[in-house]
Amino acid sequence: MTGNLVSTIAQVECRSESRGEEKPVAVIIGGERLEIVEFLDRAFITSVEAGEPVRHRLWVDLEDGQRCELTRVTPDGTWMVRVER
């Protein structure tokens, strides 16, 4: 995933999967709901330090052609969104 990534204020809309996992289905940026049309890549990022949060990072394409990096920090479940510009 290349290009300049810009952090933005956004919400990530998720749907629960059968195993209890939440799968992101859309990103809401500036009041506009944009469906995720493709998952490009994903990674789990862990730390060597015990007790540090785990990050689940996804790179996705949105319906309007934008590419985003979504990062979910666990265990608190917060999302960070960065849009490629």
Q: Notable features of this structure?
A:
single chain, 85 residues, mainly beta, SH3 type barrels, seven-stranded antiparallel sheet, 67% strand, globular
Structure overview:
By secondary structure, the protein is an all-beta fold. It has one domain: SH3 type barrels, CATH 2.30.30. The chain is 0% helix and 67% strand. It has no helices and 7 strands. The chain has strands at 5-8, 10-16, 22-29, 32-45, 54-62, 67-74, 78-84. Strands 1-7-6-5-4-3-2 form a 7-stranded antiparallel sheet, with no helix packed on it. The chain is globular. The relative contact order is 0.29.
Brief sketch in words of this structure:
This protein is mostly beta strands. 0% of the residues lie in helices and 67% in strands.
Helix content range: under 10%
What is the CATH first-level class name?
Answer: Mainly Beta
Which outline best applies?
globular
Q: What is the residue-averaged pLDDT?
A: 89
**End-to-end separation:** 12 Å
The largest beta-sheet arranges its strands as 1-7-6-5-4-3-2
Q: What is the H/E string?
A: EEEEEEE
The structural domain count equals 1
Number of helices: 0
Strand tally = 7
Structural class: mainly beta
The biggest beta sheet is recorded as: 7 strands, antiparallel
- Beta-strand percent range: over 45%
- Overall radius of gyration: 13 Å
CATH topology-level name: SH3 type barrels
**What's the CATH architecture?**
Roll
Unreliable spans are: none
